[in-house]
Amino acid sequence: MEITKLESLIKLFGQSNLGKLELAEKDLRIILERQSDTTTLGIKPVEPVSSKPTSSQTTVSLKTETIINAPLVGTVYLAPEPRKPVFVQVGDHVQKGQTLALIEAMKMMNEVTATTTGTIKKVLVADETVVEYDQPLFELEE
Q1: Total tally of structural domains belonging to the chain
Q2: Which of 71, 74, 92, 142 would give a disulfide with 103, using CB separation of 3.0 to 4.6 Å?
Q3: How much is the pTM?
Q4: What is the dihedral of CA 126, 78, 142, 66, to 10 degrees?
Q5: What range defines the domain where residue 59 resides?
Q6: Residues near 33 by Cβ (< 8 Å), separated by ≥ 6?
Q7: Cα pseudo-dihedral 21, 42, 27, 74, rounded to 10
Q8: d(CA 42, CA 21)
């Protein structure tokens, strides 16, 4: 998503009465949510914000979520070997390119890697289950 589109979306959300807005585009998900007392944005606000929040101020929290999908059909393994710890679990911070799981297809092991740096929000599959091409496997929050 282009930064100008994102800025426009944030501005429109700030002017609306919506409490929460979720937007999904391909493997990118953006959540804008109002909270009380402080302002948190990925970009600078247009209007200056005083250091002491007033009761009329609201928080806009920008969270970007990325879905990691299966690159092929096969059996997913969440650990490198049986009875070994899983590659990642909910709450783990991962780096771009880090191995998250393995998918076995035609007796070949294929790595599923993080497409971006972030935190594992959800594991969407169980160990040793068959997955389809493009099936969501993990949800990352940037």
Answers
A1: 2
A2: 74
A3: 0.57
A4: -60
A5: 3-64
A6: 19, 20, 21, 60, 61, 63
A7: -120
A8: 16
